[in-house]
Design a protein that fits this description.
Two copies of one chain form a homodimer. Chain A is of the alpha/beta class and 320 residues long. Helix content of chain A is 44%, strand content 17%. In chain A, helix 6 links the parallel strand 3 and strand 4. Chain A is elongated, with a radius of gyration of 24 Å. At the A-B interface, helix 3, helix 4, strand 2, helix 5 and helix 9 of A face helix 3, helix 4, strand 2, helix 5 and helix 9 of B. The structure holds a DNA duplex (30 and 30 nucleotides).
DNA sequence: TTGACAAATGTTAGCGCTATCATTTTGATT
DNA sequence: AATCAAAATGATAGCGCTAACATTTGTCAA
């Protein structure tokens, strides 16, 4: 028992015994059995993380933030991939909860009714990431996708583009909200045209960006800009426009979403909406870890915001 | 006891009892406690996966393959990120082994001596991925990085380039072997020049590709091609060359490594060495799962090979 | 020196499963 | 109906740890 204490609450054990125990632990190479610990204590140090994709850049940045912050702490990350399916998410939540996790981090606001009930009655902390919205189960950290895409659309309008289109691949709930933001702002400015919305259920790639912009230009050849649902598409759009000899930004403006590192390197550099993915992961993990140590946040939700990074691809007229 | 059997070995229980048990399980929403199971059985259904990076496209593709194949099976994936550090890898192996995993999947051939000993005496299956080499601990699946980069270098030479350079970011062991392959082939052809090797310890980005090619062109302005250690760098190189008005492929050839999807979409499209990352992940998981079910592979290692995908960025002279 | 209290350490039971072996049931065969 | 092996089910103990409480040791003031 004293050994158990020495390993988990060193301050409850005298310095003398502590040294002795540590020496023996070292000599024997003793490592506690987490299964036995979980069984006896009725809880684990596992923090479950459920994301819709492990490939998507966006989530891999968030994951990296989470892992970075978890590194060296006692918390073990358990990753689950819901592949954008609410049903798979439900199963994952069920599996994860059976492991008596200390906490659960999951994406977005759009859980199935069953999942929502599981979460509400769950005996662990819940943290929603990626989005901000009303009624968190527990804690929430993200930003407003609608507002971000509204700002991006305004940016295109302010740059002088008058016939903007929108391209998007696989429409998860967040993508839909971004599309909504575009539509709203375009309508308010009286420049909305449904023909300039091109979407597909296929997953997003650079090649798909080429195809979608080609589609757009055949359906609405007079389009003079696009807001892309993400940066892969934006890069594809750039390549396709270049192949067609469209001058960017003079004849055609391009704006991406997320501001991946490559947007600054592109030629011309591509305007994008910066989102704070790494920070979101780090902050999520830090927050969770605090909550589990008894340090409650003063508010249940954090909005990390966004930032329009204007670059050459929308610098119409201007020299830069 | 019969319930335990019904859930793990349904064929050892009569049809009648099985139906009865399943009905009750369903009604109660019973889910077995994995911790108790692990403690009693002395083993788990966890397969530990240790990769050097969770962000890098290469590993995220492999991870996706692994997850896809694990989906729906009884195997639980536990991911660890060694961040390219042999020491962190050692700690992760230790932590993972304390969980009594069914198997361990890890990257490459270059473990520390301590790690190697841990693995050799480990009571679980071991699978090395990403590379092929001698003396697997247990099983191995990957390809030869040296041969792949030799083939890429030959491709550049056959396309008529005579002063090829090499750029690389963070030199993990696999990158080093690729550099070695380049050097060897270039030397054999009598075109090797150490001034045309530009490397940096910084992690790879598209922007870094721009910088490295700029470096190369200032150190050895007469270079007429580069082999890039990966596709991020290749894309950056393309952008930088375009900014400098270098005509690709006529004046300068570019070859990447991995053949990320965007290489085909680029303008001009970029030659790259295709590697089978998704298949590697899938095959790894399938192989591991077979081995754990008693189906032994007939050979301890699989070489998945590579493929030179020749595109416009090295099509000197030719129309395409 | 004594008592009072806190700090440190120890005792006991049990977390929810599964390995092992014992027992009962089933079904085929004489 | 009796016999026997195989199939199915059951009883028991214990995996390695921790919660809860009990006991011992140490510290300080009166």
């Amino acid at each position: 028992m004293t050994v158990s204490r020495a390993l988990r609450n060193p301050d409850k054990v005298s310095q003398k015994t502590l040294t002795k125990i540590r020496a023996v632990v070292e000599r024997l190479g003793y490592i506690p059995d987490p299964a036995a610990s979980a069984l006896a204590a009725g809880k684990t140090n596992v923090i479950g993380v459920i994301v819709p994709s492990v490939t998507n850049n966006v989530f891999s940045d968030v994951m990296r933030g989470i892992y970075e912050e978890a590194e060296g702490s006692k918390w073990q990350i358990q990753l689950g991939n819901s592949r954008y399916s609410p049903l798979e998410e439900e199963n994952l939540v069920r599996t994860f909860l059976s492991q008596k996790p200390a906490g659960l981090i999951l994406s977005g606001l759009d859980q199935s009714e069953v999942t929502a009930n599981l979460l509400r009655s769950a005996d662990c902390r819940i943290l929603q990431i990626m989005e901000c919205g009303p009624d968190p189960y527990d804690m929430m950290i993200g930003f407003s996708h609608v507002e971000a895409s509204m700002a991006a659309t305004r940016h295109l309008l302010e740059a002088g583009y008058r016939r903007p289109g929108y391209i998007a691949a696989r429409l998860d709930p967040r993508s839909q909200r971004r599309l909504l933001g575009f539509q709203k702002t375009a309508e308010e400015a009286g420049v909305f045209d449904a023909n300039r919305i091109v979407t597909t259920p296929r997953p997003s790639t650079v090649t798909l960006g080429c195809e979608l912009v080609a589609d757009l230009l055949s359906k609405a050849p007079d389009s003079d800009a696009i807001l892309c649902n993400n940066d892969d598409l934006a890069l594809g759009a750039l390549f396709e426009c270049q192949r067609r000899g469209l001058r960017i930004p003079e004849e055609f403006g391009i704006c991406g979403f997320n501001d991946l590192e490559m947007m600054a390197a592109a030629n011309p550099s591509i305007t994008s909406v910066r989102t704070f993915r790494l920070d979101m992961g780090r902050e999520a993990m830090r927050w969770m870890s605090n909550a589990l140590t008894g340090i409650e946040p003063d508010k249940p939700a954090i909005d990390l915001g966004y930032q329009i990074i204007a670059r050459k691809s929308t610098a119409r007229g201007a020299g830069r």
